[in-house]
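Hello, quick one for you while I still have it in my head. I'm working through a protein record and want to make sense of it properly. Would you mind checking whether the tokens look sensible for this chain? I owe you a coffee for this, so here goes:
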Amino acid sequence: MLFLEYFVLLRLYQRKADLHAISLILASAMAIIAVLIGYFFKKKMPTIFEIFIIVLLMELPLSLKGYEIKPDASVIERMIVAGVFGSFSYALSEAILSKTPLIKL
């Protein structure tokens, strides 16, 4: 998630300079915490959809409080972007660790 946040989101959505470090740390922490929350409730590894929902809900308070980004994004847009990037980073790390391709040709 750290790489996705740094190379994609920080370049796609412009923020104040003081939010860059916070954003990098918070995005990575949210991905890890989402997996821990999913594991805590299910007692097994969560699915990608469950990670998406957990990250979506974790982003809700941050989106409601709002921080200025350019281009401007609504609360729903911010939540969906966070959910997609969180679940994608989970799927990517799961594929790397299991050595199975994400897409089978």
About this structure: Residues 2-97 form one domain. Residues 18-42 form the longest helix (25 residues). The two ends are 26 Å apart (CA to CA).
